[in-house]
Specification:
about 130 residues, three-stranded parallel sheet, 5 strands, alpha/beta, 4 helices, two-stranded antiparallel sheet, single chain, about 15% strand, elongated
């Protein structure tokens, strides 16, 4: 996907979900009311938490690591040792859904989201 399309897609997203990785830096293009869910921080707890705080978006992460399971161990390409950032994981679906529902609630209650929704409704009415 071209970079400008990535920015547009991200900017038009209210909820952003991903594993720890460089793709999460796209959160800088999210709208002000957005929420981000870093599924697992790979023992680097402040990296994207700090970026979310600086950007002003709400950060969510997995609180109960026992509900994450390593499916396949990954090897760091240059260190040639097992490394959490390269493992494949599975997770508890119920916990995942619970966190996503919290994110939805956060976004729907955010004053900027509410104001934007009102503007869109007025615009649609005026176009009719």
């Amino acid at each position: 996907m071209p970079f400008l399309k990535q920015i547009e897609t991200t900017h038009n997203s209210d909820i952003f979900i991903g594993m720890h990785g460089a793709g999460l830096t796209h959160m800088i293009f999210l709208p002000d009311w957005a929420a981000i869910f870093e599924i697992y921080n790979c023992d680097d707890p402040n990296c994207y938490l700090d970026l979310a705080r600086l950007r002003g978006v709400k950060y969510f992460t997995w609180r109960e690591e026992s509900l994450l399971k390593i499916e396949r161990e990954g090897i760091h390409p240059s260190l040639h040792t097992s490394h959490k950032k390269f493992h494949n994981y599975s997770f508890n679906v119920q916990e995942f859904v619970k966190i996503v529902k919290k994110m939805i609630d956060y976004v729907r209650r955010h004053p900027n989201f509410v104001a934007e929704q009102r503007k869109l409704k007025r615009k649609i009415k005026s176009e009719l």
